[in-house]
Give the backbone structure.
Amino acid sequence: MMYTLNRGVRMKRLRDLVDCNFNTEITGIKINSKECEPGDLFVCTMGVTADRHDYIDDAIEHGASAILVSKDVGKKSVPVVKVEDTNAILPYICRDFYDRPDEKLTLISVGGTDGKTSTATIIQTLIGSDNCGYIGTNGRTCGKFTRDTNNTTPDVDKLYMYFDEFVDAGCKYCVMETSSEAYFRHRLDHVTYSAGVITNITSEHLNIHGTFENYLECKCMQFKRIAKDGISVLNIDDSHYEDVLKCTHGNVYTYGKNEKADLIIKDFTVYPDHTDIIYTYEGKDYSINSPLQGDFNVYNLAGALLVVLKLGYKMDEIVERIKDIKISGRLDLLPNLGQNFTVMVDYAHTPNGISNLLRFVHTLNINRSIVVIGQAGERDFLKRPVVGKTVCDNASYAIFCYEDPRSEDPKEICDMIVKDIEDKSKYEIVIDRSEAIKKAIYMAEENDMVLILGKGNETYEKLKTGTIYFNDEEEALKYLKERVEKEKA
């Protein structure tokens, strides 16, 4: 059953949100003109590539009841209020409109290049989804609902609405993935966290940041937003630990194999279906049976555990919840329909995430690893050949295809991916992602593993012609069923 907000329609007068004399009823705030509805205040923010003053007429056509600007735009058919800086005032308007929901939640940020979704999901599970909301790659969820989001870290107009949803659903906590792009675009300049954890830092998103130094600076911004008496949890084993430490506010706690860590990864053994771990905390050893595989998840679990412990939970209380952890889109093994090989869908898309995953896969009792993967258009083109080489260095065979090519030519993207691969026999290019998945499933032999990487449980492909529905798992199951039925016949 679909959960709905029980507070009714939110309504504020325009004059209560900004300094003006208009008594217009406002029932929502939007920065996307196409999303506007009657009752909405359209705020003309300045984006990195877009000036939303250019979309005022479109917003009015879609139903906007008032417009907030920082430029002279002339007379319009709805009230127009001019302020000095729409970007600067937007967070405060949204916050007031939703009655400061952030103050009613303990906000937890999760940053890092890899493992954000896993770590945030673990934190939500350890606290309990009835008491903790989640915002990130897998949408926004709590015990009462699951809904989609457009970005890993939402724009401000959405963010406070999501906080309000969680308050309405009875949550006391909210854990959210915080991306470097969100800090670069100043989506989170106004948010203060009670706690934050970082997984690791490796090169990523240089198309946005330009240099690794700029990327690192944006990653460190997370810990400048921690409350003075808040909780900052760092990976002491990460090569950029000292860089992050210099920028950190609040009380600092660490996790890792280093014996100086507050939560020590003492030992672990990875099995095909679980991991046995020994963590040391406050001088006591804890034996953990984790359903998560891979050494990277030993770290993700350690960071999440330390956050929840420092929020006041007891180890004995939360250890029991570890068995319930399930991370959608991560290490998702498809059901066996009678085939003699396995198929896995995973979100891994960075060189570090891919190499970690493939190293783990080859500790299992498999024959070959066959990887289907692409790289997104209009994103970090320097990463493309690194990903291609990483896949071919660690997998038995690769099939490169499109993956949200957007306005770019997918063939050109694939050509960039394979640029540095010397052994041409280790890969092929099948541009269409559906056909690439089909090829991988049909070429798999006994005890092989097919890995479809890069998109996890996402339900779209962004093509030059527009966005279409597409889900890796559904495509794989379709061809898996087709192959098994043909072989039976």
The first helix runs from residue 14 to 17. The chain has three domains: 12-95, 101-324, 332-488. The longest strand covers residues 226-235.
